[in-house]
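thought: fold this chain, then report.
action: predict
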Amino acid sequence: MRHVRWGGAALLLLAVLAGCGSSPDEVGDPPVERVLVVSLPGVSWNDLRHYDLPNLERLAASSAIGDLSTRIGRSDAAPTDAYLTLGAGTRAIAPLIDRAVALDPDESYGGVSAADIGLRRRGSVPDGIFYLAIGEALDTNDNSSFGARVGLLGARLHDAGVRRAVIANADATEGFVSEEPPPEGSYARSAATTLMDPEGLVPDGTVGRDLLKDDPDAPFGRRLDPDAVLSAFDDVWEPDGRVVALVEASDLLRAAAYGPRATASQRSALRRQALEDADALLGRLLDRVDPEQDAVVVVSPVAPGGAPALGVATLQAPGIDSGLLESPTTRRAGYVQLADVNPTILELLGEDTPDDIEGRGFTVAERGIDARDRIVKLDDSADAARFRDRMLPVVVGIVTAIAAVLAWFTRRRDRLRPVWRRQLIRLAYFMLGIVPATFIFRQFEWVPENPAAYLAFVLWTALLYVMLCEAAEQFRPGLGPIAAVGGIVGLIFVDVVFGAPMQLNTVFGYSVGIAGRFAGLGNLAFALFGAATMMLAVLIAERHQSRGLRVALVLLVAVVLLEGLPMLGADVGGVLSMVPAFAITALLLSGRRITLQALLIIGVSTVAALLAFAFIDAVRAQQQQTHLARLAEHIVDGRWGPFFDSLTRRWQASFGGAELAGWLAVVTILVATGVYVTLVAQGRIGRVGPRWDRGSVAGAAGLGVLALVGLVANDSSVAVPLTMLIVVVPVVALRALHEPQPQ
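observation:
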C-alpha cells in the first residue's frame, strides 16, 4: 500500500506541475475596425539579418513576432495551398486546374470574359474578383482528409458586415505585350483565395494587370507599380468602416519564379531588389495605418526556397505588447501556423471563431525581449533545425551499427569469455546513453554546432552514461539495466512536464523546419519513450516481484497521463498506442490471461482514455485549448468524421495512399488475429511459467502492440517501430548477458 500511496502522490504532483507556468494572453484589447494583412512570400527572419529592410525591422520592434509554419501535411505549402489555408483556417489543398487564376470583372481568360465564365461556373455574373477554380477547390477539399471549408473567412467577414479587399498580382511570364492578357499558365493570383467567399468572390480590390508596370530589369520584365497598389488600397481603406485588406508584395513570388532562369549572382540580385521593394511598399502601407486603432498582420505564407518551412509572422494591434507569437496549436513561444491566421483576424475584429477549424488565434508570450534578440532567437532556431536534420542520419547510422554488433555477439555470448561479455554490456549501456545525450545537447550552448563537436559531445556523454550504469550495477547487482532504461524514461518525463525544451531541434525530438509538432513528444521521442517505459516496467516487475509490479503499474499510468493530458503531451496517436500496449503488458505481468473479452475491454478503455483527455481540454480556457478540445466538440455535436479523417491522414502519410493503407490494415489485423488464436490454442498467452519468462512474454506482446498501433496511429511510417529498436535491442542484450552462464 505504501507504494500505491507514493504512486498516487506522484500522479498528483504530475497534475500540479502540468498546471504550472504562465500562459500566453489573448490578442488585443477592444476589437479593431480595420485589419491590414501584408503578405511577404518567401521571407524569413534570416533576411532581416542579411538585408537592409528597415520598415519590417521597425514593425518587428513594436510587434509580437514569430515563425509561421508553412507546411501542408508532409510538404511545404505552394502559394495557392497556403492562401486557401489562410482563408479556411484548416489545411487546404489547391485544385489541379486553374489553381491560381483569379480575374477582375473587366478581364478575360482564354478569350472569354470574366462575366461569361462566372455565369457558367457559378450561375451569375461575378461582381468583384472571381476565383475561377472555386468549384473544384470546394470539391477537392470536401473530399480531402483535412476537410477544409474553402472561403470560410470570407463568409464570416461578409456575415459580419466587414468589407474585404485583395490587392495582388504575381503573374509571371515573358513575351506578351501589355495590351494582351497573359498566357494561361502565367496567372499567379491565388492571394484572392484568402478573403474570397464560398462563391469564389472578393468584392473589392484588384488582381489585374493594371497593378504592374514594365521594367526590363525586373523578373519577366514587369514589377508591381507601388503607386497603383497604394491607390487601390486607399480606395478600400475607409476611415469609418470595418475593413480587412490583404496586400501581397507580389514581386517576391515573381523573383522566385524567375530564379531558375538566372545565374546564381543574378538570382541573388533579383531577390535582393524584390525584398527592398517589398519593404518600401510595407513602409508606405504602414504610414496609412493608425497603430492606436488598426491591426497589422504580416505573414510569409510560403517559405524561402532551400530553407526550413518557416516564414515571418508579425502582429501589431492596440493592446498587443512586443513579444513572441504563440498559439494553442503550437504551444511553443515563437511559432504559429498558417491555419492560425484565420481565427486571429476574426478575434481582432471581435467576431466569434469557428469551433471546427484547425487554427487557433495568436497569443503573445515572452514579453520584454529586445526585438533584435527575438529575431536572432528565431533565426538561430531555424539554423538549429537545419543542423538537426543533417545529423539525424549520422546518429541513426551509428546506433544501427552498434545494434548490429550487439545483436551479433549477444547471440554468440556463450562462446565469449567473461571479459568480452562485460564489454558487450558496456556497449549496450553506451547505445542507451546516446539517447539522453542527443536530448541534452542543446542545453550546453558552449558546444559548437558542427558535426565533429556534436558527435564528440554525444559519444563522451554516452561514455559517462556507461560509467553511471556500471556504478549502479556495482551498488546493487541487477540495478544497472534499470538505471540505463530509467534514465531515458526519467529524462523525457521531466522534459515534457517542463514544456519539452529538450525536444526542440534535437535528433530524436522534432524539427521546427518540418513542423509536424512544436510541443509535447514527437513521433521518434514517443517511440523511444514508449519502448523504454515498457522495458523499465518489465525490469522492475521482474526484479522486485509483487512490490515491483505495483511500481510498474504506477509507472505505466503516469506515462499515459503525461502522453495524453492536453497541457503536456496532448498526443492522440500516443494515447491510442500506449493504452492498449501498456494494458496488455500489465495484464501479462500480473499473470492474467489475454482473452477476447479482455481485448474488448482494453479497446473500450483506450477510447475512453482519449475522450477523457479531450474533455479535460474542452473545459480549459479557449486560448489554452489544443486539438483535443476540437475532438471533444466534434463528439458532443455527433461528428465522428473529423476523428476518422485524422486517422486516415496518418495512414496515408505512413503508407502513401488510402487504398494501400486500408489493405495493410486488413492484412495486419488478420495476421494479428491468426497469431493470437495460435498462441491461445497452444496456451502461450497469459499462463506462462517462470517469472522471467512472464516478463519476456509481457514485454514482447506490449512492444508488438505499441509498434503496430504506433505505425498506424502516427504519420511516420516505419520510423516508430524502427526507432523503438534503439531501446529494445540493448535491453534485450542486457537481459541475455546478465543470465547465468551455462556450466
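thought: worth noting. The chain is about 55% helix and 10% strand.
final: C-alpha cells above.
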